[in-house]
């Protein structure tokens, strides 16, 4: 996979609140092309695996409960410098620190329930994309 791709999840709170259309509009308007997308729900084992880097953190169990409580929209996105551009578009982890107009500023309710995921490196973008999609599902 080229390094101009990133991976995102519109988290369960975004689906529950009916915000997926508005968030996808922001993503499209920012110039990202959708390479793959699906509505899916992670199992507890999948979420523990996906977030294994955080397994020693105090918020880990709450994070797994949150991310598995309902469906998410998983997607692979393409744009020049996709990882960095997308992290800028979504804003800081804590929505109270997220810049005006960013997706987390507009749609997140707390540092825990923060609306959206974005990969933090090209390497993780590839790992996370493959976690949710086969090569045949990425266009
Ligand atoms: N999280 C949390 N409490 C914290 C930090 C993070 O519940 O103090 C959750 C939040 O949903 C966040 C996810 O764990 O998006 C992964 O944390 P990370 O530090 O990787 O933030 P991100 O890369 O999503 O901005
Ligand atoms: Mg992260």
List strands and helices in order, with pairings.
Layout: E1 5-10, H1 12-16, H2 20-29, E2 33-40, H3 44-50, H4 60-68, E3 72-78, H5 82-90, H6 103-107, E4 116-118, H7 122-132
Antiparallel strand pairs: 1-3, 1-4, 2-3
Uridine-5'-diphosphate binds near residues 63, 93, 112, 114 and 117.
Report on this model:
The longest helix has 11 residues, at 122-132. This protein has a four-stranded antiparallel beta sheet. The protein has a single domain (5-137), classed as Nucleoside diphosphate kinase-like domain (Alpha-Beta Plaits, 2-Layer Sandwich), CATH 3.30.70.141. The chain has helices at residues 12-16, 20-29, 44-50, 60-68, 82-90, 103-107, 122-132; strands at 5-10, 33-40, 72-78, 116-118. Helices cover 40% and strands 17% of the residues. It has 139 residues and is of the alpha+beta class. The protein starts with a strand and ends in a 7-residue tail after the last helix. The mean pLDDT is 97. The protein binds uridine-5'-diphosphate and magnesium ion. Residues 54, 59, 63, 93, 111-112, 114, 117, 120 line the site of uridine-5'-diphosphate.
Short description:
The protein is α+β, with helices and mostly antiparallel strands and 139 residues long. It has seven helices and four strands, in the order βααβααβααβα.
**Strand order of the biggest β-sheet:** 2-3-1-4
Using only C-alpha atoms, the radius of gyration works out to 14 Å
Total E-strand runs: 4
CATH topology: Alpha-Beta Plaits
For the terminal residues, how far apart are their CA atoms? 11 Å
- Succession of helices and strands: EHHEHHEHHEH
Give the ligands present: uridine-5'-diphosphate, magnesium ion
**Which CATH architecture would you pick?**
2-Layer Sandwich
* Helix content bin: 40-55%
Shape: globular
Return the structural class: alpha+beta
Could you tell me the mean pLDDT?
Answer: 97
Give the class-level CATH name: Alpha Beta
What are the low-pLDDT stretches, counting only 5+ consecutive residues below 50?
none
Largest sheet: 4 strands, antiparallel
